[in-house]
Model the fold of this input.
Amino acid sequence: MLHKFFGFDPMATLLAFVVTAGVLWLVQPVARRLGLLDCPGGRKDHQSPTPVTGGLAIFVGCAVVLLWFHSSSRAVHSLLAASVLLVAMGLYDDLRDMRWYTRVLGQALAALMIVYWGGVRVEQIGPVFGLGEMSLGWLSVPFTVFATIGIINAMNMIDGADGMAGLLGLAALVMLAFAAMYAGNEVLAGRLSVLCGALAGFLAWNMRLPWRPRAKVFLGNAGSALLGLLIAWVSFRLTQNPGHPVNPVLALWLLPIPVMDCLVLILRRVQEGRSPFSAGRDHIHHIMQDAGFGPTRAALHLAWFSLLCGLLAGQAMRLDVPNPLLLLAFVCLCIGWYLLSRRRSRAVAFFRRLRRAGEPVVVQGAVQDLE
Done:
């Protein structure tokens, strides 16, 4: 019998894992018949058409278990309704390619659903600047919508290699779960156990493994949008709950790679006269692959770096390091990556040195299988 641990529910985690992994297995032939496939070509480096049903399966896994264990919560109902909207739009986008402004409009509607139906919003940002309570007032709703759209698109942008968005998302959700347990918010920790289980069920099909050299399924636009929404919803619930206060600045350090990569790319593309939503091979994982990292190694390295950032930020808060300093440190991280990546060759050389420095402690045969 599996027992709860400070709200984290192993049984719910396992059930969400099994449901998600099972749905992915069941819908693969359906996806191929319907054309829900990501086909090779252009800047894409996978070798065969791959189903993009990860988002649908994660939603089903989360919905089944959340409704079973948390069916009375308006906040959960609003999250699931918003998820239906994003998953439906994402699946259509994977089939037909929607305009970027249509996607943003759908993301805004999803954010408004969790605000007005579920009562989940960003109201206090004063603690970020060490100012105590500082209500956003009428700006609360637009700020929540803006933050939600930002996180969704950060996850969409980082979804460019097998296991990348899934591992970074799982790292963020696990750290949010520990933050919830530390804060005494056992209800949210229980819900996070469901989200972690569902995402792990997806990664069982998405990760490259020694016996499987390529991902069997992708997140798709539906999946990356859903993952961003889930992380945004949990972050708002955790940092804006007066009964279990967690400083909002911690959320930045739990998702450092997607946020940093997104901000720097938007700035650089605007400077180049390009749309921030244009495609390109200018993400951090693309640079790492140019430096010799395989997709799996790049995803694993960025995931452990995210976990390290979250751990250090959490310990800094326990030691009463001023929150404005933690915010300044994150800004410095973004500036440092912007300066390093201004010249692609310099960024590639940086990661190539890191890869060579780590080679003596890597089991070469296993690495070659994974890449």
Summary: DSSP finds 15 helices and two strands in the chain. Residues 361-370 have pLDDT under 50 and may be disordered. Residues 10-34 form the longest helix (25 residues).
